[in-house]
Amino acid sequence: MSTFPMQAVAAARVLVVGDLMLDRYWFGEVDRISPEAPVPVVKVARREDRLGGAANVARNVAALGAQVSLLGIVGDDEAGRQIDALSQQAGIRTQLLTDVGLHTTLKMRVLGRQQQLLRVDFEERPAAESLAQLQQAVAQWLAQHDVLVLSDYAKGTLHGVKALIDMARQAGVPVLVDPKGREYEQYVGASVITPNRLEMTEAIGAWRTEDELTARAQALRERLQLEALLVTRSEQGMTLFTEQGRQHVDALAQEVFDVSGAGDTVLATLAVMRASGLAWFDSVQWANKAGGIVVGKLGTSVVTAGELA
């Protein structure tokens, strides 16, 4: 693997669009069971908010030292304002569209002795008017960036993803997509999609051999007119499919502490390296290294340029 391209990374300009979330953590101690029900009582000692979803992708891009802009939709509420504040603190240029009828997506986790005990999700889908405003904003920002990253968490922000991809192609801007669901035809024309192992199985069915995976993955890549298809496979590493064939990189051997947000780190690193001018497989090797580092951290976290270099 080549030396970390620090100067090229600093010049890279990444636009991230997708589902914005706030990850809220309540840390505490557990030393008794509730007399009201057979559940642990957590005495909360510390609270922490982190950027989640597409905002975590942008946070990872910024941590690597690249220039990043974030577009998304939030509600007129405390969680939306917190996403804006945390983004500013992370050095992310933002345009957060406010949907007054929306509650910002919030994932609240309760942890006792570093173990997750409960997660509570609050989520709603944005209105059609907000989605139209988002498309207009993307059209205005595209020309100022080297790559477009679409982070799809199936919360509704990327309902018009096909139009965004078409817009980027017309502008000559590569598109990297973290997909969701089984309707992959909506991603036709993207530069790359990065499904994980489960998502790939939902898209092409279960495979028994590597040859079978290769045949189905290449057929999907050609049908969707992709430059590349990257399957992230947890402990099995990552497999890249391009017109030149199949290339695989093994996972870095280390203790896995928390996989939440690891896909965001991989996507962000891949985007930064492509925006810096690296080839697909070189970019995948850096993304694999970043993924191996971030799973050793608690919660949605980032990998810095220093850690990678």
Write structural notes for this entry.
Keywords: Kinase, Transferase. One of its GO terms (molecular function) is kinase activity. It holds the Pfam family PfkB. This is D-glycero-beta-D-manno-heptose-7-phosphate kinase. The protein has helices at residues 6-11, 54-63, 78-89, 128-141, 161-171, 197-204, 210-223, 262-275, 280-294, 305-308; strands at 13-18, 20-33, 40-53, 67-75, 93-99, 105-112, 115-122, 147-151, 175-178, 192-193, 228-232, 238-242, 245-249. It is of the alpha/beta class. It has one domain (6-22, 52-111, 125-308): Ribokinase (UDP-N-acetylmuramoyl-L-alanine:D-glutamate ligase), CATH 3.40.1190. A nine-stranded mixed beta sheet has the order 5-4-1-8-9-10-11-12-13, sandwiched between helices. It has a four-stranded mixed beta sheet with strand order 3-2-6-7. α2 packs across α8 (262-275) and α8 runs antiparallel to α9 (280-294). The longest helix has 15 residues, at 280-294.
Task: Give a topology summary.
Layout (H helix, E strand, L loop, with lengths): L5 H6 L1 E6 L1 E14 L6 E14 H10 L3 E9 L2 H12 L3 E7 L5 E8 L2 E8 L5 H14 L5 E5 L9 H11 L3 E4 L13 E2 L3 H8 L5 H14 L4 E5 L5 E5 L2 E5 L12 H14 L4 H15 L10 H4 L1
Parallel strand pairs: 1-4, 1-8, 2-6, 4-5, 8-9, 9-10, 10-11
Antiparallel strand pairs: 2-3, 6-7, 11-12, 12-13
Residue stretches low in confidence (pLDDT < 50, at least 5 long) are none
Question: What is the general shape?
Answer: globular
Question: How much of the sequence is in beta strands?
Answer: 25-35%
Strand order of the largest sheet: 5-4-1-8-9-10-11-12-13
Number of strands: 13
Specify the CATH class. Alpha Beta
- Name given to the CATH homologous superfamily: Ribokinase
Mean pLDDT: 92
> Describe the biggest sheet?
9 strands, mixed
Distance between the termini: 11 Å
